[in-house]
């Protein structure tokens, strides 16, 4: 079992990881969008464009966005895929409330549906989607291998998986600066702005412990995917993974 699956948001909490993750995101939902953009100085928008471009290449009619959060990926997909049916799933009702409010104020209220579900057991039919996307969610799964098996199940044969995940730089200087930033400034900003003293300490801990690059594509291969590939951005601070379900 990858080490990240043993790292929980709240250290002294006896609840299962999925319950802790749900509570954490419920707590930080009001500040989530602001924190995402602030922590990356807006570079997350570039990363999002890379994810959407990879998804668009598959010309999907049906897309499922897992760990959809406040819906940023779903809305970005909707802007590029005018005829696609998009479903966003997330554990946290707090995050989904934000997503639904954003949808109601947008032109996409009728083409994106949001609902609460565990990404390890979505309740969707077999071979439902042409594309499955996940942004910054895989390292929060209680069982990453099970999550990939579920993604494989809901993808149609030939369907495409696109996963965007935070990662650790490998070069000495970027790695040193990154560790300093994530271990000090991010937790401090998180405590001040999100009012959850653990959420933004859990973030760098989970990034450091999560499977990255070749280790992540190996998990995709083990779930049955083929042509698993990764591409790193911003000195390795973010990685885009793509893979396909065999025809």
Give the secondary structure arrangement, pairings included:
Layout: H1 17-39, H2 43-56, E1 62-66, H3 72-80, E2 85-90, H4 93-104, E3 112-116, E4 129-135, H5 144-154, E5 155-166, H6 172-194, H7 199-209, H8 214-222, E6 226-233, E7 238-244
Parallel strand pairs: 1-2, 1-4, 2-3, 4-5
Antiparallel strand pairs: 5-7, 6-7
Helix pairs in contact: 1-4, 1-6, 2-3, 6-7
Q: Would you write up a description of this structure?
A:
With 247 residues, the chain is an alpha/beta fold. It has 8 helices and 7 strands. It has helices spanning 17-39, 43-56, 72-80, 93-104, 144-154, 172-194, 199-209, 214-222, and strands spanning 62-66, 85-90, 112-116, 129-135, 155-166, 226-233, 238-244. Strands 3-2-1-4-5-7-6 form a 7-stranded mixed beta sheet, with helices on both faces.
Strand content: 15-25%
Topology as a string of helices (H) and strands (E): HHEHEHEEHEHHHEE
Shape: globular
Low-confidence stretches: none
**Structural class category:** alpha/beta
End-to-end separation: 29 Å
Order of neighbouring strands in the sheet with most strands: 3-2-1-4-5-7-6
The helix content is: 40-55%
* Total number of strands: 7
Number of helices: 8
* Overall pLDDT: 92
> From the alpha-carbon coordinates, what is the Rg to the nearest angstrom?
17 Å
Taking the sheet with the most strands, its summary is:
7 strands, mixed
